[in-house]
Write a structure and sequence with these properties.
Shape: globular
Largest sheet: 13 strands, mixed
Order of helices and strands: HHHEHEEHEHHEHEHEHEEEEEEEE
Strand content: 15-25%
Number of strands: 15
């Protein structure tokens, strides 16, 4: 099966070969994506290499049901949104692919999950239905097989005590938290950790606090927790894979996911390394929706394939989103 091939990718040749197979599958089976490609003058036969593949603007996940399968939907993941704004919907037919993706991704970057205590501080996500991040955190908590693992809503005092106790005993901890909640934690409680604790921010103030650039956020959190690095997770509702940063805001992808950069003034043109532009993502785990997505994030990619998030487009729509009206 094509889905099995995705998680056995070993090198760039494997990736390109699999990406072309996934494109062919999605062009034939995803009518929204097929129409988008056709209106760009791109067909199945005209895509010979990975750079020929077009990227669907992420806004379409707010407007259409993006699927490449006739199988029934098992779960609908939804994005958080401000009052009155439309939200993205990711129709997932096979949750085992999502679970394989985040489990294999975590293993790739951090090793065996059973070696960690997982503490999840995700109040804004827990307070709504349909969060893919909460689904992932819940499964990782279960996989840790540790009674000390768990979710925290607003029990920051209890969490602070747990963190301090685990750090004192040199226990291996992963604290996964939304940015505003981590800031609230360090501002309201004295928590000094050692390097057996990984603090990982998932981004976003969710309207709770003033937005901060990542460098400022990380400096505040490093000082507050008394640690040398802040890790980051980069994911979104429309993806089934995550990139991770182990410090300094430099992210790496698992083998079945890649980033490329598009020219902000010409969205069909890709840029080389060390140039800032719009982030396009290939997420092959999205085999049953769309694996080729043009996001609203700005960033740059480096020679080794790592990348950095610089910010977001000022306008709500990506340039090129209105190329077609479906």
């Amino acid at each position: 099966m094509l889905a099995d091939t995705i998680f056995s990718i070993q090198n760039n040749t494997d990736f390109e070969h699999t990406a072309l197979r996934v494109f062919n599958h999605q062009y034939l089976n995803n009518k929204i994506y097929q129409r988008f490609c056709n209106l760009l003058g791109i067909t199945k036969t005209s895509v010979k290499q990975i750079t020929d593949i077009p990227y669907l603007p992420i806004e379409f996940f707010k407007q259409e049901k993006i699927v490449s399968t006739t199988s029934s939907t098992s779960k609908i993941f939804t994005s958080s949104g401000t009052t009155g704004s439309s939200t993205s919907k990711h129709y997932v037919s096979d949750l085992t692919i999502y679970e394989k993706s985040f489990r294999s991704g975590f293993q790739h970057f951090y090793g065996d999950i059973s070696g960690y205590i997982i503490l999840a501080l995700l109040p804004s996500y827990l307070e709504r239905d349909g969060s893919s991040l909460v689904y992932m955190a819940e499964k990782l908590i279960q996989d840790s097989h540790n009674p000390e693992s768990g979710f925290y809503l607003y029990e920051t005092e209890k969490l602070a005590k747990t963190l301090q106790n685990c750090s004192t005993k040199n226990k291996k901890v992963l604290l996964l938290g939304v940015s505003f909640a981590l800031l609230d934690l360090v501002e309201n409680h004295l928590v000094k950790l050692n390097n057996t604790t990984i603090v990982m921010e998932t981004g976003g103030m969710k309207g709770r606090r003033k937005e901060m650039i990542r460098q400022e956020l990380h400096e505040t959190l490093k000082k507050g927790f008394g640690i040398s690095k802040i890790h980051s997770e980069y994911g979104m509702t429309e993806l089934l894979s995550q990139a991770y940063s182990k410090g300094n805001g430099i992210f790496n992808c698992p083998p079945w996911m890649k980033i490329c950069i598009r020219n902000p003034e010409d969205p069909l043109t890709l840029l080389g390394t060390n140039k800032t532009g719009g982030i396009n993502i290939i997420d092959l785990a999205n085999i049953n929706s769309c694996s080729f997505i043009a996001t609203q994030d700005l960033g740059k990619i480096y020679d080794d394939g790592s990348f950095e998030i610089i910010g977001r487009f000022d306008n709500s729509d990506i340039r090129g989103c209105n190329l077609i009206a479906l």
